[in-house]
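User: These chains co-purify. Model them together.
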Amino acid sequence: MRFSSLFLLNTGICLTTALAAAAGGKEPHYPVATLAPALRENAHAVIRTEEETLLVKSAGRTVRTVRRATTVLDEAGANWATQLVYYDQLSSVSYLRGTVYDAEGQAVRQLRASDVKDYGLSDGFSLATDARGRVADLRQPSYPYTVSFEYEVVSDNSLFYTTWQPQSDEQLAVEQASFRVLTPASLPLRFQERHLPKGVAVAHSQQGDLQVYQWELTALPAQEEEPYGPPLSEMVPAVATAPTTFEVQGHRGSLTSWQDLGLWNYELNTGRDVLPEAVQARVAALVKDAPDERTRIRRVYDMLQSSTRYVSVQLGLGGWQTIPATNVSNTGYGDCKALSNYCMALLKAAGVQSYCALVRADEPDIRTDFPSNQFNHVVLCVPLTKAAKRDTVWLECTSQNTALGYMGSFTGNRHALLLTPGGGQIVCTPRYGAAENRRERRADVYLDAQGSATAMLHTRRTGLEQDQFSQLLHGLDPAQQKKRIAESLPLSNFSISKFALTDDAKAAIPTINETLGLTLPQFGTPSGRRVFVVPNLLSRLPAVSAPVGERQTDIWLASAFSHADTVRIHVPAGFQTESIPAPVKLTTAFGTYSTQMQTLPDGTLQYVRSLHMPRTRFPRTEYPAYVEFRRKINAADKAQLVLVKTES
Amino acid sequence: MQLRVLRGVLALAVLSGTGLTAYGQADPIKFGKPDPQDFEAKNFVADSAAEAVILCDFGRSRFEMMENDFKVVYDRVLRIKILKKSGYDWATLKVPLYKKDKQEEKLVNLRGYTYNMVNGQLTKDKLESSAVFSEQRSTNTSVRKFTLPNVRVGSVIEVAYTVNSDFLFNFQDWQFQHSIPVRWSEYRAGIPEYFDYKMLMQGYEALTVQERTENTGQFTIRFAGGFTGESSWSGGSGRQAASSETVTARVTNYRWAMQNVPAFNDEPFMTTSDDYVSRIDFELAGVQWPNEAYRSVAATWEKINTSLLDDETFGAQLKRGGFLKEKVAAIMAQHTDLGARVAAVHQLVRQSIKHNGQNRFYATSTLRHAYDQHTGNAADVNLLLIALLRDAGLEANPVLLSTRDNGAVNQNLPLLSKFNYVVAHVMLPDKQEMLVDATEELLPCGTLPTRCLSGQGRLIMPKAEDSRWIDLQPNQRYVEYRKVDLKLDEHGALTGNVHQEHGGYEAQHQRERLRTQGEKKYMEELAKGHDNWSLGKYAFHQQDDLQKPLSLDYEFATTGNDAAATTLYLNPIREFAGSKNPFIHEDRRFPVNFGAGMEETTMLTITLPAGYVTEELPKQAIVELPDNGGRFMYSVTNLNGAVQVISRMNLRKPVYSAEEYASLREFYTRMLAKHGEQIVVKKKS
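Assistant: Joint model of the two components:
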């Protein structure tokens, strides 16, 4: 899938009036003095006016125009004085114009055609992409100033309509913004209003043959995301729009339901899953002694992972239509669509039915209540038909390392659109909770009389806890892995004496084991006759800072995990324990925590810590309680034991 | 600096050079003939850590006549063994191509194969043209990208291609070292006597082969027939029938090779990997045509000086500041002190042109244009600065330099292409010198941006013989100072007042953060670094007075235990001085380049609760680096009812050699150990 479509912004209107008046230098435009103080507060920039228009010319063509004037208040808002207008094989930029006004509102510079640059927008990972951008830079040496940009994009790809969210960044205020959609009555607009202020609603009217939908927003003060809070898109007004009928390069589809969108995608790729006979025969031989469905899937997935790799080519309709399975079998590479389609074809040859599924990977989940193209990735879904109880195997076909059935933080815990002959169907990808996302650590620490120590740690990580370690293991050589681990250790002074990462292929859920040997010159702090030791070697959870001012948003604790630590401290001869930390047990709705320390019969000190955090949400009023919970954990994590030299 | 010189001569005769590739040495690789040994696992045991290995990288550059003009023809054959799935990216290759006006680089004769050993049989998959893509990055640059088919763990991939280039000034450079190990890397260059190239070798690996042989090359001059005009070459003129003639020229054949080159990896505190990786670069110094005098192109620093002063987008612009003469006159009237006058001109330029982030030493077009646009590259900004300083009666001249990320300049090789930046040099009447740059909003006049701290720059003077090297030593350090007053209570809770100052480059860094984040976020970030802190009142001072440090006063409090304790353990210095050794890795191959020195001072006083006394105090310590390279001083003093802790650290040198790395790491280790020691406070019994 292609990611580019998310850039599309639009609107339009003519510029002549603005420029003519500006040239006269009489009538000021957007003088900073008229800006309400409430909008300047905590803002780097203020959108003075934004007019965005989407004109639907036909099912296959749209024209988007944007006219936006932004006052830049300081350097941190200066990116608002630059403009990138995205285009590709299916769209073109009609014009890009710009003017700069000083604080008093007098025009000081016009953007000239020669000042507009044109760049290929290589995403850094694609072998080929048609994404391009027109770029203008109107940044000024002193603040404040106002920049206005106007541009128009004509698109022959109506699969994506605009999602209008004028307050698109933190610390950006909006004085006035409007959004209009003009569309023939035969192509009615679908839209979803989100977080609109009281009193703001769609104004519906008729203009000639066109239906007009219009929204207007005024005086939106700057917003900021809060720690453990929702993303900006959950706090600010927006209107999402989508077509009822669309057409891309002769492929027409309707979009009134998930079923419609799924059907269009399914049919676009129909007939592209044919394999050469030799490959079909190879698959048949591969699974001929495997009657079990899951074994067949595993063998096919192993074949896929060992014989293909991910190479992205996104050109025109190729952003949505897969290259045929035959090509993948010839070259051994493809993008997410192509590899999923190829794997589907291999499974078919093995007698297993599977379906491609669209997801939005690595970003917040789709809005299931507004059918529209919100996807950027494809995975493969294999329902088990012969299993005793209903079960599904999910396959990430672009990775050569991901374990069978694992979706991880990239595609797990979200919705997907299953593409079936009967159309699209919204389903859930696997969910990973605190029980799956585990980290278990066992450490033996050998302390000497000066406070130095050596330690041997064995850590087992599963589920989402292992994701980045799996990437380290499969992506970097051992020396580089060790460097990365060293950089991430929360210790001030140490050397690594031993290090190894291995994956446990037999585990039911992806598992990475880590062996770590450490030399710790200052594990214990000597002071006179005493040595102070914090037994919690590596698992300290930082406290959460109390909010500056009142908490505005709810608490989203999105990542579920559980940690279990056992640390055994081997005390040197000639020392005895003067004090050990008191046990702590915290049971709250946010999670549970406990620590306990005891002396084992052989004199070894054993510290046991457990932390369990589910995926939850709380109203903002609970924030002080959450801060207190984290403060108590932090205090307990830093508790120290005191050893004292016995008289000799 | 175009090829006008060459074209004038070449119009006289059409050369077809086929005799320039005479090498005595056998090629280290034959395209299309994989070595069976490369498919045996035992030959890669030593590379178990690597994702892929470059088996052979073989490049050749030579001169040929094509389309009535000289071209540099560059052939490359590259063979790579893929050892891990993470090495698949090595099967996708990119060839950047440049064009300017009518001159261009062209990729031709691209071929590629993937070899796999399948059940003891060697299979061969061809690179298809459908897997080759071209991407136009900008007007002058494009990239040819292609990927090889059927790549697996164990595959050997092989590509060969030729680049024909019109750019004789930029002879193809060669990089021996990459981020994966290289078994054999070889580059050959056959250069006829007409061309004189400067060659610049760098890196930390030694050459295995370095040969230079001379022979004679056979040149065939083809006359297409028709009217060829005056020709000093053939001695003839007027109408001619199609014919050819062979002449002999001396050719120097160079051969450089490295064997078993280790993988190159970035380390922290480096300028740019380009400064450390093993490579050889070329620059055309002169041309020598038959029966003509040697024409130097960039042979001396004096020549560079002169050509820059004559250049329309450099020297010529220094005389074009007149459009601001009223503003300059006002500054001159207001400031008779020359130092103040420099500062005023600096201020004017900084507020007139915003640096667009591009580092260049040629102006975009005219200074007037940049001024009208209010935006420009480093040359637009600093050439205007020099022009206006001169108009204001000061002796100001340009200093060419290469920024840290652009790589080092070799003073023995006068290569203009190694520079990418220009600043102003001012000589005050008392012979005091200043380096001035107006691209940074938050640096005071007279301080270079850290990106310019790259050793030495070249002063460009009105008289070429006066040009010289200028030290780019920083006149600022990273300075941090803190004064902390703490009150301890019986529960172990602390309340504190902190006064901190950020000076020198640290001031710029913190002002930038403050500007980006705003005061509220800045303080939230500050609190985030400390567990269990609640912040009270805060105030920033001297935000806009760039000559002074940025200062901040704030209050904070921590909560204590529920019950009063008879013994309290403290190590408060940890909260204020850094707590992680920046030198995590045990060894280092390259110098540690900070750019500027640093100094950190914390003075902390803890007032004890009534009835409590200190029981244990850390001992005083002094740690020094060899050669006066740095010093850490730590002391704890028992005052009446209070404890004073003083920690001072300074690193005097901007650059430490790789040999000094171990002592630098140890220095931090000892300092952090000292900061970790606790103060024990006890209730009087």
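The CA atoms of residues 75 and 162 of chain B lie 4 Å apart.
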